[in-house]
Design a protein that fits this description.
single chain; 312 residues; alpha+beta; two-stranded antiparallel ribbon; 7 strands
Length: 312
């Protein structure tokens, strides 16, 4: 009995110590709790850039259909008149024919042989002139390797009117001396005055005999002849010297690969504005092409590699 009274007394003290009420809430076990997934972060597209120097042999592939083409440096050429170049090319073509006809194994046969005689024949010394119809016909046929006319004029008898007349009034050089100076190389230079034939009419007048006035075309032809003689001499005594070679241009390339869109378009626009040569490999369609304007790729969607190069 005593122990029971002690227990009740202790319980009374504990309840007295509690100032507030203890509250309990109920839980609806049938309800479902909503769980919110964390937001998936946005991943920016990955782009791959490359750049470098183009190989000097133009073998660098910028994109699959476009190589880095380094401009070739044109060889230096002597400042010859067009007429001098025409004469050089004609003689290079006809001298082998003359050589075969006469069996002269020492006859000149190459462009280099004739260039050595004409490299100082500039427009100042050996000026160009506008050919008349007959001159132009003969010159163009010889330049275009009309073998019938080549054989007619440069084998057998040298005087073959009217073709030889047109030749000598245009170049200031009769066919016979052209063969001697350029093919046979039996004389170092042309000499004497160029006059019309005294045995046959020429295209510019009747049979000519001294002291008849010389046709105007022959007056002009002798002016050309004087210049040709002077430049042949100068080519031998003071030949043209090529200037130091010009260095080839240095070329550099850039590429950008990734998803088509604003970044690709911005880069292509920048290249085009700066004067680059641009190309594009479009992976989705399997097409590779040059890019002349942004419109060429702007509507494309998918993976793409764009590349460009420039030479300076």
């Amino acid at each position: 009995m005593r122990r029971m009274m002690q227990a009740l007394s202790a319980l009374s003290l504990c309840l007295a110590a509690c100032d507030g009420q203890v509250k309990f809430s109920s839980m609806d076990l049938g309800s479902k709790q909503t769980v919110t997934d964390p937001t998936t972060p946005t991943v920016d597209p990955v782009y791959k850039k490359t750049s470098g120097s183009c190989s000097s042999d133009s073998s660098t592939a910028v994109v699959s259909c476009m190589k880095c083409e380094i401009p070739a440096v044109p060889p230096a050429e002597p400042p010859m008149s067009l007429k001098a170049k025409q004469l050089m090319n004609i003689m290079a073509a006809v001298c082998p024919i003359n050589r075969a006809y006469y069996g002269n194994k020492y006859a000149a046969t190459t462009i280099a042989d004739h260039l050595a005689k004409l490299n100082r024949c500039s427009t100042a010394l050996y000026p160009d002139s506008t050919p008349d119809a007959g001159q132009n016909d003969v010159v163009q046929r010889l330049l275009n390797n009309d073998t019938a006319l080549q054989n007619k004029m440069f084998t057998g008898l040298w005087y073959k009117p009217p073709y030889s007349d047109y030749f000598e009034t245009y170049f200031g050089l009769e066919v016979g001396q052209a063969i001697q100076v350029f093919c046979e190389q039996s004389v170092a230079n042309i000499s004497g005055m160029l006059v019309p034939s005294s045995t046959a009419p020429n295209p510019y007048g009747p049979v000519w005999e001294y002291p008849d006035p010389m046709p105007d075309m022959y007056v002009k032809a002798n002016d050309y002849r004087d210049g040709l003689s002077a430049c042949i001499s100068l080519s031998k005594t003071s030949p043209w010297q090529a200037p130091p070679p010009v260095a080839a241009k240095a070329c550099n390339y850039e590429t950008l690969a990734g998803a088509a869109g604003d970044q690709i378009n911005s880069q292509v626009s920048s290249w085009l504005a700066a004067g680059y040569t641009v190309g594009a490999d479009m992976a989705t369609t399997g097409v590779c092409s040059s890019v002349k304007s942004l419109d060429d790729i702007k509507s494309y969607q998918g993976d793409i590699t764009v590349g460009a190069y420039i030479c300076k």
